[in-house]
Amino acid sequence: MIFTQYYLDCLSQASYLIGDETTGRAVVVDPRRDVEEYLADAQEQGLTIEGVILTHFHADFVSGHLELARATGAWIGMGDAADPEFTAQPLQDGERIDLGEVVLEIMSTPGHTPESISVIVHEHPDDAVPHSVLTGDCLFIGDVGRPDLLASVGVSQEELAAMLHDSVQNKLMSLPDETKVFPAHGAGSACGKNLSTEKSSTIGNQRMMNYAAVPMPQEKFIALVTEGQPTAPAYFSHDARINKENRPVRDPGATVPALDEEALQQAVADGAIILDTRDPMDFAAGHLAGSINVGFSGRLAETAGMLLSPDQPFIIVADPGEEHASATRMMRIGFDNCVGHLPDVAGHLTEHPHRARRLSRLTASEMFTALENDQVQLVDVRNAGELDNGRVEGAHHIPLAQLTKRCAELDPARPVVLHCAGGYRSAAGASWLMSRGFTDVSDVLGGYGAIDLIAV
Question: Which residue range or ranges hold the Rhodanese domain (predicted)?
Answer without folding.
Answer: 268-317, 372-453
